[in-house]
Amino acid sequence: MHKISSAVHFAKRRLAVARDHDTQWAPNTDVYVSDAGLVIKVELAGMQRENLELTVEGDHLRISGQRPDGCRAPQCKFLAMEINYGAFETVIEVPEGFDVTCGKAVYQNGFLRVDIPFDSSRSRGAGSDD
Amino acid sequence: MTMPETEFISILGAGGSPDASGTKVWSKSLPESLPILGLSDIVIFPGTVTHLLVETPQSIRLIDDVVAGDRFLGLVLQRNPDIENPAPADLHLCGCAGRVLKMLKFPDGSVRVAVEGLRRFRVLSYASESPYLVANIEKLKDVADDSLELTALTRNAEREFQEIIKLSPTLAEQVKVAALNTEEPGKLADLIAANLNLSLEERQHLLEMPLVKDRLTRLLPLLSRELEVLKLGSKIQNEVVTSMSKNQRDFFLREQIRAIQRELGEVDSGAAEAKDLRDQIEQNNLPEEPKKVALKELERLQQMPPAVAEYTMARNYLDWLITLPWSKFTEDKLDLAGASRLLDEQHFGLRKVKDRLLEFLAVIKLKQQLKGPILCLVGPPGVGKTSLGKSVADALGRKFARISLGGMRDEAEIRGHRRTYVGAMPGRIIQSLRRVESSNPVILLDELDKVGSDFRGDPASALLEVLDPSQNNAFVDHYLDIPYDLSRVLFLTTANWLDPIHPALRDRLEVIELPSYTAAEKVEIARRHLAPRQLEEHGLKKKLVRIPEATLRQLIQGYTREAGVRQLEREIAALTRKAARKIVSRNVRLPLVITPAMLSGYLGPPPFTSETAERIDEYGIAIGLAWTPVGGEILFVEATRMPGKGGLLLTGSLGEVMKESAQTALSFLRNRAASLNIDLSDYEKRDIHVHVPAGATPKDGPSAGLTIVAALASLMTQRKVRSDIAMTGEISLRGRVLRVGGIKEKVLAAARSGLRHLILPAQNRNDWLEVPSEVRRKLKAHFVENIGQMFPIALLSK
Question: Which of B5, B67, B177 sits opposite A108 (nearest CB)?
Answer without folding.
Answer: B5
